[in-house]
Design goal:
Layout (H helix, E strand, L loop, with lengths): L2 H8 L3 H4 L8 E4 L7 H6 L8 E5 L17 E6 L7 H5 L3 E4 L8 H5 L9 E6 L7 E3 L7 H5 L4 E6 L7 E2 L2 E3 L5 E4 L7 H9 L4 H13 L18 H7 L9 H9 L7 E4 L21 E2 L8 H6 L15 E3 L7 H7 L5 E3 L2 H4 L2 H4 L5 E6 L2 E3 L4 E2 L2 E2 L3 E2 L6 H10 L4 E5 L3 E2 L4 E2 L1 E2 L17 E4 L2 E4 L5 H10 L3 H15 L2
Helix pairs in contact: 16-17
Length: 488
């Protein structure tokens, strides 16, 4: 049977496709999910029981985030919670799966009887090419990883997915059901209609300015239905066009001294790292390589401007490699589309230690919420155990910098939070805080006040290094606490 016939036979409607989900199943709904399948499944809430929905950074609610109980749908977040659904973990109604990208598929591949692969995957794919292969678009993430392992794969075909390169394809025969859905164009009339639904004057003005600033309103198409509920500042950050915080400028200047020609770099999502390109941390450098979990604003512009060419990379020479181009700004995405320099691969390959330890000069650049005076790095929680996001790929990428013979693992940290009232360098972590990076892997911490070099330093020396880059208003208190803890 040729692939066209397979496709025709497996083409169905969303309502029919989601009938494959049974009570007791686990359904994987990845980041940037299909538009039609989650609502169709949510509509079956009176027919199903004990269905677990596994989510990665959701940005909408088809009907399972605010149910009064978990008898029909329970929610499990994998790797990253995100802003939109954080209220669920705040209310203890959603749980968290602390996988690593590099090891998330290990138990499934081993066939461990106590760990069950999700029963059903929802994903979005391109229309098949002439050979019958589909790809997953700019936001590749774990979609192909699960498509290769889940018993049932249901794919929504989106004709608007831009062409990407890398090891990103799946054959029509590997997908059990197809539904077709091409998003309607989102332009000025649609935006004005969404704008009219915003009653708060401050939010209304913020959205109006965002609409005026965007070169293409279609960029808002994926969040169109959520515009009345979302903060325009959050969307600016998502699109990589928000203004960097004031402390990001000095941090970028300190970071610049650690970037050398020919380095391979990774930058994590969030503040202040997303502003490093715009603020000049890489200006004047050349022959840089990119090997990263996700993108950042200015990533593709670095290639366009001759800063990045990947020519000195030990693997994937001449290419920039990622799991997804999520996090890049609109200009970057235009450069990446159809450009064979930029390649996507599955996360269990990109982030695996066997892959990452091949780099001789790997510079990992990530953010933190707090760092204690021993060098323990928390990038996940506030006020003790309140989870903000999750690990993402930070542990593997940080370790790549640690184990790279001439590399660095750099943590960027604004010195304070809450308008300066709270120091983000702390004597000890609050009870319940998650330690994302243990102290024995801590390397270099940069705040707007300087650089703390922790590698090879004892506990007292580390405390001195970190106090020196804390905000001046908090240094005396930190010194007093440090002396009570580590000096006689």
């Amino acid at each position: 049977m040729d692939w066209q016939e397979i496709y025709r036979q497996r083409l169905t409607t969303p309502a029919e496709a989601v009938k494959a989900v049974k009570s007791g199943d686990t359904v994987m709904v990845p980041i940037f999910p299909p538009a039609t399948l989650p609502p169709a499944l949510a509509a079956r809430k009176d027919e199903l029981r004990d269905v677990k929905i596994r989510l990665l950074a959701p940005a909408s609610d088809p009907g399972w985030l605010r149910l009064p109980d978990e008898s029909t749908f329970s929610v499990e977040f994998e790797l990253y919670v995100g802003d939109y659904a954080r209220f669920m973990t705040d209310e203890r109604r959603g749980t968290y799966l602390p996988n690593l990208f590099s090891l998330g598929m290990k138990a499934y591949d081993q066939g461990r009887p106590d760990v069950r692969v999700p029963d059903v995957l929802f994903c979005t794919v391109s229309r098949p090419n002439r050979a019958g292969f589909c790809h997953f678009g700019m936001h590749h993430w774990v979609k192909r990883s699960y498509a290769r392992r889940c018993p049932i794969v249901i794919a929504e075909v989106d004709d608007t997915l831009p062409l990407v390169y890398g090891d990103v394809y799946v054959h029509v025969s590997e997908i059990d059901m197809f539904v077709e859905h091409t998003p309607a164009p989102f332009g000025r009339p649609e935006f004005e209609k969404a704008l009219a639904a915003i009653t708060d004057p401050v939010r209304h003005e913020g959205w109006k300015k965002l609409g005026d600033d965007l070169p293409n309103l279609q960029l808002l198409g994926s969040v169109a239905a959520l515009i009345p509920a979302l903060s325009p500042d959050d969307v600016r950050r998502l699109l990589g066009i928000g203004e960097p915080p004031p402390e990001a400028g000095p941090i970028a200047r300190h970071l610049r001294e650690f970037i050398q020609d020919g380095d391979t770099v990774q930058i994590g999502v969030g503040e202040p790292s997303r502003g490093m390109v715009r603020l000049g941390a890489f200006e004047g450098r050349k022959h840089l390589g990119i090997h990263t979990e996700l993108g950042w604003p200015g990533l593709a512009a670095m290639w366009r401007d001759g800063i990045v060419d990947g020519s000195r990379k030990e693997i994937h020479a001449g290419k920039s490699v990622a799991v997804a181009w999520t996090g890049c700004d609109p200009t970057d995405l235009d450069i990446i589309e159809g450009n064979p320099h930029f390649e996507l691969y599955d996360p269990e390959y990109v982030l695996h230690p066997r892959t990452l330890t091949k780099f001789d000069r790997f510079i990992a650049i990530n953010n933190a919420i707090t760092v204690d005076l021993l060098g323990q790095i928390n990038a996940e929680t506030v006020f003790g155990g309140r989870i903000i996001n999750g690990t993402g790929g930070q542990p593997e990428m940080h370790l790549a910098g640690v184990f790279s013979p001439h590399g660095r693992a750099i943590t960027l940290l604004p010195s304070t939070a809450m308008g300066g009232a709270v120091s983000r360098i702390v004597a000890q972590m609050d009870a319940g805080s998650y330690v994302t990076i243990p102290r024995f892997y801590a390397d270099t911490v940069i705040t707007e006040y300087g650089v703390a070099r922790l590698w090879g330093k004892n506990h007292r020396q580390r405390a001195e290094e970190l106090i020196a880059v804390a905000h001046p208003d908090h240094r005396d208190d930190l010194r007093a606490q440090a002396r009570a803890l580590w000096w006689p």
